[in-house]
């Protein structure tokens, strides 16, 4: 059946393309955070191990929400490493960084996702897509707050 939600096909496609980048960024940051959770060492081990677990669990929920919004707009969500690697703006980490470098790297990832969200807002505004705007606002809130809290650990 045709999607008839008051947003034309061209706008739905453009918004979905932006959301696909957001999905790839979110999944990439999820993997990176999970990796750091497993591999962090040093005097901050216990607190960072716990913190990173909370963060990757939150990102796992976000991945599902973003993918489901793409589907609600009538498009297919990317769902493979290959697709995510092409779309993401977040760089993979080489090796296992030291704990403070993990923190700095995660700050960059959260800030990158906040920027990705902002890049989608104009298309959503044009289409009066308040549902996607709400998702983007929620994601920016989480990522900006998380980046601030992580930055505070290495100030």
Automatic annotation (TrEMBL):
Residues 19-154 form the Ferritin/DPS domain. Transmembrane segments: none annotated. It holds the Pfam family Ferritin. GO terms for molecular function: ferric iron binding; oxidoreductase activity, acting on metal ions. InterPro entries: DPS_DNA-bd, DPS_DNA-bd_CS, Ferritin-like, Ferritin-like_SF, Ferritin_DPS_dom. Belongs to the Dps family. This is DNA starvation/stationary phase protection protein. It comes from Rheinheimera salexigens.
């Amino acid at each position: 059946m045709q999607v008839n939600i008051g947003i034309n096909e061209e706008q739905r496609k453009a918004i979905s393309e932006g959301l696909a980048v957001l999905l790839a960024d979110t999944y990439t940051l999820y993997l990176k955070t999970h990796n750091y959770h497993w591999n962090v060492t040093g005097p901050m081990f216990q607190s960072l191990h716990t913190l990173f677990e909370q963060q990757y669990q939150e990102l796992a929920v976000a991945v599902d929400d973003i993918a489901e919004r793409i589907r609600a707009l009538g498009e297919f969500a990317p769902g493979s490493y290959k697709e995510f690697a092409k779309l993401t703006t977040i760089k993979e980490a080489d090796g296992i960084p030291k704990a403070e470098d993990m923190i700095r790297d995660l700050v960059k990832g959260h800030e990158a996702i906040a920027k990705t969200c902002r890049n989608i807002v104009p298309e959503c505004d044009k289409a009066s897509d308040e549902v996607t705007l709400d998702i983007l606002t929620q994601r920016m809130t989480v990522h900006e707050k998380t980046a601030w809290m992580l930055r505070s650990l290495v100030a």
